Amino acid sequence: MLKIENLQVAVGDKPILKGLDLTVPAGEVHAIMGPNGAGKSTLSYALGGRPGYEVTGGTVEFDGEDLLDMDPHERAAAGLFLGFQYPVEIPGVSMLQFLRESLNAQRRERGEEELSGADFIKRAREQANALGLPADMLKRPVNVGFSGGEKKRAEMVQMGIMQPKFAVLDETDSGLDIDALKAVGEGINRIMRDPQKGVLLITHYQRLLDYVKPDRVHILSAGKIVKSGDADLALELERDGYAEVLA
């Protein structure tokens, strides 16, 4: 589903990713772990097409298509979802308005009919209820005044509404308490655990992986995948740290 070969990415004049190789088949959840500065967020931004992250080499194939040849909105319409470590606030725009416009923009890009207001409200309420996000919060400006946990729940609501093929989740567990972590983990499993979908979880800690068990764990260091293994690799990292595992 996602195949990355020799990916090289620079920010300004500084190379960050230095020949990264990674394949995530459909139906699997892969976790990326690594020390600070390894290039984890750079990988997510490069996949999403964020300006300022220049791909200087390599290829990325997504669902049989050249991902790097697509604009960011085309990547989203093709089914790629990017979850941010720090979801942004958008004053003056309600969650409902933002989510409906986002969904229908993607549907138009794919040549599909827009969802009616009634059908959209039904879908939004179903997803909010499943994530434990009060429905009245959907009427508030995007993430304005939300706690860290509420922002991440809202992001999972967005993912549930969009129903992407592949989710790249950058430190989704950041700033979550135990209840929010469990809710977000259950949301990822409910929305994305599917033979036709895939997930790339970027995280520092094992705790999210207690709820979303990965099929593979990869260690990213100095811009490259340097070690891969099954879910036990994350437990090894938690116990021994990067220095011991990478020695």
TrEMBL record:
Q: Which UniProt keywords apply?
A: ATP-binding, Nucleotide-binding
**Gene3D superfamilies attached here?**
P-loop containing nucleotide triphosphate hydrolases
- SUPFAM superfamilies with a match to the protein in the record: P-loop containing nucleoside triphosphate hydrolases
Tagged with keyword Plastid: no
Identify a single GO molecular function assigned to this protein. Answer: ATP hydrolysis activity
This protein's source sits in the domain of life called Bacteria
* Pfam families, per database record: ABC_tran (PF00005)
Q: Which residue numbers delimit the ABC transporter domain?
A: 2-247
The question of whether Lipid metabolism is a record keyword is answered with: no
Family that this chain belongs to: Belongs to the ABC transporter superfamily. Ycf16 family.
UniProt protein name = Fe-S cluster assembly ATPase SufC
Which organism encodes this protein?
Answer: Sphingomicrobium sediminis
